[in-house]
Design a protein that fits this description.
Structural class: mainly alpha
CATH architecture: Up-down Bundle
CATH topology: Four Helix Bundle (Hemerythrin (Met), subunit A)
Mean pLDDT: 86
Strand content: under 5%
Oligomer: single chain
Number of strands: 0
Number of domains: 1
Distance between the termini: 39 Å
Helix content: 55-70%
Number of helices: 5
Low-confidence stretches: 135-148
Radius of gyration: 15 Å
Order of helices and strands: HHHHH
Shape: globular
CATH class: Mainly Alpha
C-alpha cells in the first residue's frame, strides 16, 4: 500500500470517528446539537481531504469546505453537486464552538447537517469506491435516521 493511500485511509478513519461521535451524542438523553453539527462538519471536511489525498493531491490546512471543494473541482468537476451541503456545514467548523455569536443549533439543524454529511460520504463512495473498498462497512445502516 502506498503512503498516500495509507494517509487517506487514516483521514477516513478520523471521519468515521466524527460520525460515531455524532451518533453517540444523538443517543444521549440531552443532545448537544452544537456538538453533533460540529462533528458532521468535521466528518465532511475529513472525507473531502481523504478524497484529495487518495487522488494524490495536497489539501489546504483549512476548515473552509468551499476552499477544499475548489481544489477537488480541478480533479472532479461533478463535485460541484456538494456545494450547497458544504455551505450548510461551514458555520459548524469554527463559529459554533465559541459563544461570541451565540447560536445554538436545533434538532432541525442537526438533521440538515446529518443529511449534508451523508451526501458527502455517498459522493466519496461513488467517486472512488475501488480506492477505499469496505471502509464504511462497519457503519450502522440506520445511523442517518437517528434524528429524523
Amino acid at each position: 500500500m502506498s503512503d498516500q493511500i495509507e494517509i487517506a485511509l487514516q483521514w477516513l478513519a478520523k471521519a468515521k470517528n466524527d460520525l460515531l461521535c455524532a451518533e453517540n451524542n444523538l443517543k444521549s438523553e440531552v443532545i448537544p446539537y452544537d456538538t453533533v453539527c460540529f462533528h458532521y462538519q468535521q466528518a465532511a471536511e475529513k472525507l473531502l481531504k481523504a478524497y484529495l489525498i487518495g487522488k494524490g493531491k495536497q489539501h489546504k490546512f483549512t476548515h473552509d469546505l468551499l476552499l477544499i471543494l475548489e481544489d477537488i473541482l480541478q480533479v472532479c468537476p461533478d463535485a460541484e453537486s456538494l456545494r450547497d451541503e458544504l455551505a450548510l456545514l461551514m458555520p459548524y467548523a469554527v463559529e459554533i464552538r465559541y459563544p461570541d455569536d451565540w447560536f445554538m443549533p436545533s434538532e432541525h439543524d442537526a438533521n440538515e447537517a446529518c443529511n449534508a454529511a451523508q451526501k458527502v460520504m455517498e459522493w466519496l463512495k461513488k467517486s472512488i469506491p475501488s480506492l477505499f473498498p469496505g471502509t464504511f462497512e462497519c457503519m450502522q445502516p440506520d445511523m442517518w435516521d437517528k434524528i429524523k
